[in-house]
Amino acid sequence: MSAETIQSRRAWLLSDRPASRLQARLGRAYVAWRRFSANRLALVGMLIIIALLVVAAFADVLAPYSPTVGDLKNARLLPPGAAHWFGTDDLGRDIYSRIVYGARWTLYVVILVAIIAAPIGLLVGTIAGYAGGWTDTILMRITDIFLAFPKLVLALAFVAALGPGIENAVLAIAITSWPPYARIARAETLTVRNSDYIKAVQLMGASPFRIVLRHIMPLCISSLIIRVTLDMAGIILTAAGLGFLGLGAQPPLPEWGAMIASGRRFILDQWWVAAAPGAAILIVSLGFNLLGDGLRDALDPRSGDQ
Question: pLDDT-based confidence at 63, cuts 50/70/90?
């Protein structure tokens, strides 16, 4: 591709007067990508998350051993080596294989929590911000009640009531994760509800439900995506904490928090049993944090083009 072609396409994307909605959307996406790619740490975070997705998708190919079946007689607590890259645990299971398969459970938790918590927070926040009055007061006081408790403590209470298990852990984390999203959505709604754009839609006869659903919620999506991405690390740590306490994923599932719990008994002599899943949690949490920081800079409308 010639330099002239590249320059012409770039000028088309950065045009101040786009000829179509598609051109305008592609131009905004291009500007956001330029801001994002200028942040090297954000690119590192994106590569970590892409690696996590690849590992989870191809776990059957990448894992040389079963994540649940071990050789208790010949492979118990072996140190890292050529046969077992991250060593083996107290039941003779390959830790590397368990971490690879554990990536699936990590994605399972964070995706389900995001799918459940983000829409709830978005709906509550936009309704409270647009309706105002008693509706706003009641919804925000409920939100404040949830925010008054530490997330892990509240999740422990819900899991204790629902019973241990990965599904109940996901539900408990989602129940405790929506209030910050509601606060962000409410703040965005308060900013735009009196704008000329919304007034024009009201004059056209649009119902409050349509205004909230079609015109206000899309304006809150970018801020919500940033917050959800930044919260992924906290969701992973909360899920690992529940697994560590025996209230999350149950044996023999290869969940990273449960793996740390089983390895804490050998932390002094067989350190690799707990260190390997701990390092996996650290790297993935760091990746989500770096990605969230990059998205915050890229999607911030106040940021100038770089």
Answer: very high
